[in-house]
TrEMBL record:
Any one of the GO BP annotations: proteolysis
Signal sequence segment: 1-23
Protein's recorded name: Lysosomal Pro-X carboxypeptidase
Assigned protein family: Belongs to the peptidase S28 family.
Ribosomal protein as UniProt keyword: no
Top-rank taxon: Eukaryota
PANTHER family, per database record: LYSOSOMAL PRO-X CARBOXYPEPTIDASE, PROTEASE S28 PRO-X CARBOXYPEPTIDASE-RELATED
Keywords from the named record: Glycoprotein, Hydrolase, Protease, Signal
Lineage of the organism: Eukaryota, Viridiplantae, Streptophyta, Embryophyta, Tracheophyta
Pfam families, A to Z: Peptidase_S28
Molecular function GO labels: dipeptidyl-peptidase activity; serine-type exopeptidase activity
Length: 492
């Protein structure tokens, strides 16, 4: 199961991708996924409980031009759960998950914030799949949709938001629910979309909960090394000796790799399924393992602590790489050997298309982190994207379209009803909104939280600080809806 999840998360991984894959010259980091793996026993297969009804909407391909081909349509998948809805006559709210880079059936089973609070709000639940993900594929197939820049050119966050606006308008009209308030909920990239949805379409959505949404990791607003600085802090807080061991390991790997038969020695020591081609291949694999653990450092397992316990648990006098292998063994799928993470871009990766066009987050590492220095290089990044997708990134577009610079003073002038929630152990939190903008655009952070933890399924073992964070969010949403209902009464 872990291996399957990793395959879903990473492109070109384990050398099993058969489409074009180009070795990347820039550092790659985990995508903005809602989850790395389920926090409970829910299957990652497409099984859905009976309350979750799968539907398809005939969606417009291009919302912004009027060429003949713009009127082409595709089938967009969405899920509706009517179980708790109070009905249109009661003006009960509609909770909409703004689909992100994943299969909506899996997402709907992980976002416990919606299902667990639907009875409290008598809410209708709607989950909309993002175009070009899951089964919401234009042009009839993945092969056709990813054929070239002409077919991929309709793949953007602005088109996705327009999809959500059109579909929600259709649903409300079809259900005679025009007076029902809509609350957008999203995590990670979906959280970015939820906040942008509220800003761009305030007449359609009256509030947004944006969990772990790094809307400020663009255009130089956030320091390049911020992501890796948070990862480093996470490990250092867990164990100083663990942090030191990881920091020392990169040069140790390079030193052994430089020896005669050094790569063979490393391949055997780390039980790699096939000989290493370079020391970088092993370092990429270990780096990805360590940063994923920090990004998804969720209770009750706390993978950062798990790796550090493995590193520190060896007898005194154990060498650095033996300690690193102990962590590697603790975090890898069981088996006779271990696969490595292959850095590269795939021309059939939906997320990499987005990263190569508009979602250009300039993330790199410097010598202040526990990783080897590798600054973000826009020139190399652009070359990789042009080689694989034949498209040139637009690193300034997100801040042009949605804003970001001087966000506090800008949003204070016109924005309302947005919650930006973050866990400060999440490396992406460094690119989030961490301070209140106004009385109604608020930031809720927890020192021990990880990526999107507040909107995931609640567990009996959840710590008090996580419960309090969720309760704060619920209280704010209740206030929005009460204010909306008061306004409705006064207008009648």
């Amino acid at each position: 199961m872990v291996r399957k999840l990793l395959i879903q998360l990473f492109s070109c991984i384990f050398a099993i991708i058969v489409t074009r894959c180009l070795a990347s010259t820039h550092r790659q980091i985990p995508s903005l996924g809602l989850v790395m793996s389920s926090r409970d026993s829910i299957s990652t297969e497409t099984y859905l409980p009976p309350d979750f009804e799968v539907n398809y909407y005939t969606q417009t391909l291009d919302h912004f031009t009027y060429r003949h081909e713009s009127y082409t349509t595709f089938q967009q998948r969405y899920i509706v759960n009517f179980r708790y809805w109070g009905g249109a006559n009661t003006s009960s709210p509609i909770f909409v998950y703004t689909g992100d880079e994943g299969d909506i059936t899996r997402i709907s089973q992980n976002v416990g914030f919606m299902t667990e609070n639907a009875p409290r709000f008598n809410a209708l639940l709607v989950y909309i799949e993002h175009r070009y993900y899951g089964k919401s594929i234009p042009f009839g197939s993945t092969e056709a949709a990813f054929a070239n820049t002409s077919t991929l050119g309709y793949f953007s966050s602005t088109q996705a938001l327009a999809d959500y606006a059109e579909l929600i308008t259709y649903l409300k009209r079809n259900l005679s629910a025009e007076s029902c308030p809509v609350i957008a909920i999203g995590g990670s990239y979906g959280g970015m979309l939820a906040s942008w949805f509220r800003l761009k379409y305030p007449h359609i959505v009256m509030g947004a909960l944006a969990s772990s949404a790094p809307i400020l990791y663009f255009d130089g607003i956030t320091p390049q090394n911020g992501y890796f600085a948070v990862v480093t802090k996470d490990y250092r807080e867990a164990s100083e000796s663990c942090y030191t061991t990881i920091r020392q390991s990169w040069s140790e790997i390079d030193k052994i790799a430089a020896l005669p038969n050094g790569l063979i020695t490393l391949s055997k020591k780390f039980q790699i399924c096939g000989p290493l081609k370079s020391s970088q291949e092993l370092k990429n694999t270990l780096e990805m393992m360590f940063v994923l653990a920090a990004q998804y450092n969720n209770p009750p397992t706390y993978p950062v602590n798990k790796y550090c316990d493995a590193i520190d648990g060896l007898p005194k006098g154990s060498d650095v790489l033996s300690r690193i292998y102990a962590a590697f063994g603790a975090g890898s799928p069981s088996g006779s050997c271990h696969f490595t993470y292959k850095v590269g871009l795939s021309n059939t990766s939906a997320w990499e298309w987005q990263a190569c066009t508009e979602l250009v987050s300039p993330i790199g590492a410097d010598n202040t982190t526990m990783f080897q220095a590798s600054p973000f290089d826009l020139k190399n990044y652009t070359k990789d994207c042009e080689d694989v997708f034949h498209v040139t990134p637009r690193p300034h577009w997100i801040t042009t379209e949605f804003g970001g610079h001087s966000i506090k003073s800008v949003l204070k002038k016109f924005a309302s009803n947005i919650i930006f929630s973050n866990g400060l152990r999440d490396p992406y939190s460094i690119g989030g909104v961490l301070q209140n903008v106004s009385d109604s655009v608020v930031a809720i952070s927890t020192a021990q939280g990880a990526h999107c933890l507040d909107i995931l399924n609640a567990l009996p073992s959840d710590p008090e600080w996580l419960i309090m964070q969720r309760n704060s969010e619920i209280k704010i949403v209740q206030g929005w809806i009460a204010e909306y209902n008061t306004m409705l009464v006064n207008e009648r």
